[in-house]
Amino acid sequence: MIARIAEHCFWLGRYLERLESVARVLQMTDQLALDADLPADQSWMPALAIFGEREAFAKKHGAKAEADGEKVQDFLTWEEDNFSSLVSTVVMARDNARTIREVVSRECWEVTNELYHFLTGEAGRAEYAVSRFGFYQHIRRMVQLCLGFLDSTMLHDTPQEFIWLGVMLERAGQTSRLLDVHHHIFSEMKHTHRVVETALWLSLLRACSGFEPFMKSHQGRVTGDAVAAFLLFEPRFPRSVRHCLESAWRYLGHLCPVVGRGQPGEECLNRLVPLVEQLKPQTLEAEDASVHALLTRMVEGTDALCASITRDFFGKAPAQVGTQEMAG
Q1: Which H helix or E strand runs over 165?
Q2: Tens-place pLDDT, residues 95-120
Q3: Which of these ranges, 35-39, 241-245, 272-276, has the smallest mean pLDDT?
Q4: 266 Cβ neighbours under 8 A, 6+ residues apart
Q5: Are 125 and 16 in contact (CB under 8 A)?
Q6: Are 230 and 217 in contact (CB under 8 A)?
Q7: I need a surface site. Which of 108, 174, 222, 309 has the fewest CB within 10 A?
Q8: Cβ–Cβ < 8 Å for 24, 32
């Protein structure tokens, strides 16, 4: 498999997962802003922080606009100059899928193309004006359908493994960022009624599609520590950081079965193995350990791993990758 095709497969997986993640966070935040007794800036600022867009948003609208839910949603949905926006992400996902049209299945291409026309055409704008919940839900379901087709209609060989490697690393990074931002904000809130506190932690689980799995596996009171441990360490939950990085480790193992000095993938595995080893509950029991410190290592480690994949498999230095690496 040539490096150019592998790169497009990897980024297709990342962009598809990012689409679902942005839509899910915006959907949850919109509901949280309506239901919870939170200041507007505490509702919408985290959405910008999760995707690293606070500075770009402030430059365009001013820092005080973080409390304006309409402007934040427009920025993360329609802003073409924002690489994390839904419309920018779907354009890049479609471009990658079109470039490797002979690799991805027909069903996957059709769903990606349909979602592109929905978001860049009048249908998406109309749905956005009528029902934000329905708009974000439509995007999420289309991405989930596409990921299902990737698993059920493609050969489980090298191209598919690069796609799912991209999905899992993007998902690990998004879960880490989301948990880090919200865990810090919710933990710092003082004099919060227990009912409101519980609602906040449940909203975090919903933002990770983890509400039902958490409730099925935890019969006790919902606490910040329990939610953080679940999203970090639960191997059975497909969006936990541990599950995602262990899955990435398996895909990398298939892609570079023979690792030796100077072989492709060696640096990637050397970066990934220590990250997986840290994802144990005992990590937080160590002296001076904290959820924030562990999540910071996960975010930075995942970013470094993606840079290593770019060098090892695609033959590029990260600074030379261009728009896709900037968007990553």
Answers
A1: helix 158-188
A2: 999 999 999 999 999 999 999 999 99
A3: 35-39
A4: 256, 259, 260, 312
A5: no
A6: yes
A7: 222
A8: no
Token reading at 205: 């689980």
Query: 310: helix, coil or strand?
Result: helix
Residue 158 vs residues 121, 256, 272, 323: alpha-carbon distances, Å? 34, 11, 19, 24
Output the CA angle 303-290-271, nearest 5 degrees.
30
| Contact assessment for residue 205 and residue 227, using Cβ atoms and an 8 Å cutoff | yes
Spell out a b/e string for 41-74, using b for 16 or more CB atoms within 10 Å of the CB, else e: ebbbbbbbbbbebbebbeeeeeeebbebbebbbe
User: Which structure tokens are listed for 234?
Assistant: 């639960």
- For the stretch 147-204, pLDDT in tens is 999 999 999 999 999 999 999 999 999 999 999 988 777 766 655 667 767 888 888 8
160/57 Cα distance (integer angstroms): 35
Both structure tokens of 26: 């915006």
Q: What is the pLDDT of residues 24-51, one digit of tens each?
A: 999 999 888 777 666 666 778 889 999 9
In the three-class reduction of DSSP (H, G, I as helix; E, B as strand; rest coil), residue 154 is classed as coil
Cα–Cα nearest to 48, from 12, 14, 75: 75
